[in-house]
Specification:
Layout: H1 6-17, H2 21-63, H3 69-77, H4 80-102, H5 104-112, E1 121-125, E2 128-131, H6 132-150, H7 153-180, H8 184-192, H9 199-207, H10 209-212, H11 218-221, H12 230-258, H13 261-264, H14 270-317, E3 326-327, E4 333-334, H15 336-348, H16 353-382, H17 386-407, H18 417-441
Antiparallel strand pairs: 1-2, 3-4
């Protein structure tokens, strides 16, 4: 029996796409640096670019309907070496986003509840203070969803559906009430945040796309968990991408309406401040519900997809014991050690503070872009007509464009220096693992 239908596919995709960034970036990055106009155009172009990539996913999922997503695609259609490169890059992306979302939960509590205390100051990492209570909350959330996922896919999907419903319904309520409160002051605020059209600013927003929309591909990790046809999966996934972009822009616009450009720099959480002004303190708490739903559904979504990725890689490379495990669908299971492995990786990271975690945002974008490129290359290889070859070629071009934006200083959208060092470390570690597996089992 499959527990996954169209609703579950949608909530996994949307919940993974929308995380803490949609609530924090409007005041910290989008409005002060790029304005409403450039952000809207950038996300619009990013959606068009992702259409080509998602089309390739649809084609390849039909040919390789297995759990493991991009890793399984590349391994089956390109070879074990290419599969390992894809899986290793994607593993970095997925494992980094789980603790990133977990450490955002204390941010929600601190921003919404005056009585929340960060607790004792412990130390600083790159100038960012680390507090005891923040770590304890983050670890508690990770442990909770470890338990949920250990119980099996059915409970994890129920939690995902509930969290995404809370996210979407709360945002709809806030948006509707905000529209009703638009007056002269709000119009003036909005105009001050509108910004001037700038090609470089649009490119910088586009460079956010691999990170902002990573998660739509989580559905590919679950190909072995459902029996929904690939065309339906494609439509549902594309709907999640579009709604994700709408949510990013709606929160950006609401923030622009609530406070002017000057006030952005004076507010610790601009979006929260703006919503409180627009709808009042009572309705403001629905923003906390929405943000909590986004953050935790992202954590849960990547927990589910990470377990499928690690499971597929461990089966191919004969790593770890199989035996009785966590129920997926039908007779399928995932060994419990995989869930614990993901949990332990996630538990380690919060001790480094959120400054270090932001380096992983850069790395997740790179890992996702590599996976996008490999999937489009797979689609090109199995293309049966000119249209499919054109679409997959455009997908490869878009994926390479993302990597150029991220890895070169040409467009002033490249990753930070610590991220380059972290990437070099991950590549070196991957080479070590690759040669170990090759020498041990001759599997690659």
């Amino acid at each position: 029996m499959s527990y996954m239908g169209k609703k579950e596919i949608f909530t996994i995709a949307l919940g993974s796409v929308i995380g803490w960034g949609a609530f924090i970036l409007p005041g910290n990055v989008f409005l002060p640096n790029y304005g409403v106009l450039n952000t809207m155009i950038g996300f619009g172009i990013a959606i068009i670019m992702l259409v080509f990539i998602e089309n390739s996913y649809s084609k390849v999922m039909t040919r390789v309907p297995e759990s493991g997503g991009e890793y399984s695609f590349a391994t089956t259609l390109l070879g074990k070496k290419q599969g390992f490169i894809t899986g290793w890059g994607l593993l970095l992306a997925y494992l980094s986003i789980i603790p990133l979302n977990a450490t955002a939960v204390p941010m929600v509590l601190d921003a919404v509840f005056p009585f929340y205390s960060k607790g004792q100051f412990l130390y600083s990492v790159s100038g960012y203070p680390v507090y005891l209570n923040d770590i304890l909350v983050s670890l508690s959330i990770i442990i909770l969803f470890t338990f949920i996922n250990i119980k099996g896919i059915k409970g994890a999907l129920k939690a995902q559906n509930l969290l995404v419903f809370a996210l979407v319904s709360s945002l709809v309520l806030i948006t509707a009430i905000s529209i009703l409160h638009i007056g002269d002051t709000q119009t003036t605020n909005f105009n001050s945040n509108w910004g001037e059209l700038s090609t470089s600013s649009v490119v910088r927003i586009i460079a956010f796309a691999p990170w902002a929309f990573i998660g739509f591909d989580a559905v590919a990790q679950l190909s072995g968990d459902h029996d929904v046809d690939s065309k339906t999966v494609s439509r549902v996934t594309m709907l999640a991408i579009v709604i994700g972009a709408v949510i990013y822009n709606v929160l950006n616009v609401v923030t622009a309406l609530g406070i002017n450009k000057q006030e952005l720099t004076d507010s610790a959480w601009a979006t929260g401040h703006a919503v409180k002004i627009l709808v009042g303190s009572g309705i403001f708490y629905f923003l906390a519900v929405a943000m909590f739903g986004a953050v935790v559904s992202g954590l849960n979504g990547f927990f589910i997809s990470s377990s499928r990725l690690v499971n597929s890689m461990s089966e191919d490379y004969d790593v770890g014991k199989r035996g009785k495990g966590v129920k997926m669908t039908g007779n399928g299971t995932i060994p419990r050690w995989i869930i614990y492995f993901i949990s332990i990786c996630a538990i380690i990271v919060p001790f480094f503070g959120r400054t270090a975690l932001l380096w992983f945002v850069d790395l997740s974008s790179i890992g996702a872009s590599v996976a996008y490129f490999m999937t489009c290359l797979c689609a090109y290889k199995i293309a049966q007509n000119g249209k499919d070859r054109v679409m997959s070629s455009l997908g490869m071009f878009v994926s390479l464009a993302f990597l150029v934006f991220l890895l070169t200083p040409i467009f002033d959208s490249n990753i930070s220096l610590p991220s380059y060092f972290s990437l070099a470390f991950w590549i070196a570690l991957g080479l070590g693992v690759y040669f170990y597996i090759r020498n041990r089992k001759q599997l690659i």
